Amino acid sequence: MASQPNDPSPFTQDEKKLSIDKHDSEENIEGSVVLDGIHDGLVSPTEEERATLRRVADTIPWNAYLIAIVELAERFSFYGSSVVFTNFIQQKLPPGSHTGAGFAKGQSGALGLGQRASTGLTTFYQFWCYVTPLFGAWIADTYLGRFNTICIAVGVALLGHIILIIPALPGVIEHSSAVGAFAVALIVMGLGTGLFKANISPLIAEQYKRTRPFVITRKSGERVIVDPALTISRVYMYFYLFINIGALVGQIGMTYSEKYVGFWLAYTLPTIVFLLCPIVLLIGRKRYVRSPPTGSILPTALRLWKFAAKGRWSINPVRTYRQMTADDFWENAKPSKQGDNKPKWMTFDDQWVDEVNRGLKACGVFCFYPIYWLTYNQLNNNLTSQAATMSTHGLPNDVLSNLDPFALIIFIPICDQFIYPGLRRVGINFSALKKITGGFVTGAGAMIWAAVLQHYIYKTNPCHYSAATCKDAEGNAVVSPLNVWIQTGSYVLIAFSEIFASITGLEYAFTKAPINMRSLVMAVFLFTSAISSALGEAFVSLSSDPLLIWNYGVMACLACVTGTVFWFFVRKLDAQEDKLNKLNEGRGAHGAAADADMKNL
Length: 601
Description:
Growth Hormone, Chain: A, about 0% strand, disordered N terminus
């Protein structure tokens, strides 16, 4: 299915020949394509064809799959270990257990710090994992490049995994010192994760080298446009699929390891799987398309913004806003408009100015994401705790969280192969910004489901609003008779929200960033999850009985209101989607030369 390394086209030679119809003159073909070794012989669409022909995605090159395997192993280890964090922190060590295993009838646990401490620590871990990408992006874009930074990240994360095993070992898990070792492991693992996450996402998309749409005629006779933007969307769809394959296998395996063997095994197995990362990186090191570091571009971008804003400040805030958002704000800052007065530091071209403008607009879109992540983060702590208050019928309470990656594995190919192409076929443009809006809506729906379920848990539990701590006369936990599988609705809705919002966010960060700032813009997108984790700390007080209904209800309201405001804010930007994507089409030989100039700044 994937193309050969030297020819990334998914189409046969016959299909390529069919794409050059009789009405395409030699002059038109040569005039519409720059010979750069990537787009040679491909026919660019006319404006009429852009408006009328259906758009399809290209297939994914094999080297992208190699990177996806690295991500699969990393996510197996990340989610496989973190899925048991809630029980490890919250629940007490079962009587007589030296590994934390609860076995068939007991609840696995170790530190016994309670639900609020569990929510607080796991929220901190999420925050730390998504702050450190900013550092990883700076290192990659400025000094080491993405591939080298990923290699360092793997080494740091591996050290963190080894440290994590220590507090789970028999003889250590019984003592209070286990808390300190566990905290150190979280910090080291979070640093490695951040360095990794900022760079693996741009690296996989860069394996697809085409930036210009082209027309082909399929065997059915239909002429279609192969759109690089849709191809990048497909890359991230399957990248996310690999993420969730790793997450699903890791989480299921580790929840049973925790329950029937102990936490030491639940932390050791992810460490072993993580060793696949350096092995695959070593095998594929000569196959990957790599972007070299270009020096510190951020100061230049900030200097450009300062130059563009010159003379537009006013003591009147309304006037300042209008002048800062005027159509000519960036136009007047382009090098071609400076003439003989062009500053010496302005060594870039006009297109890079347009790309910086587009990148800042993307960062504006990301400003809304922290509220979305508030709903998603309930999956990592409160929904796991909710499952422990229901009838699990022998299942580990944290195994239900696997419904999310399981649903993603099912619905990602369905969306890519049927839903999205079907919408395009009937003329519905389900654009990136519309998908993100849909993510807010489905995320709100997941929280509504959880709030209603929590109401019935309180209603059916003998202790009512003290469901999490309800015990019988012998000290055994008493749970609601409601079957834990009723949680399925929340997890499936969260999965759809991820397809719409999370995957599209990765795609948007890559396609809207300047080429030499892709790691940075990706890190800004990931940083929104850190902001969300910080905001989540404000809601920790709602993360226990009897306030959990309020917790889920507030999340639902925030997601719904923010989604509405988001669409109001981006609806005009949505109409410019094709125009913004066209900026990438100029990055052939011209773009390479411009980037070489930027490297010398």
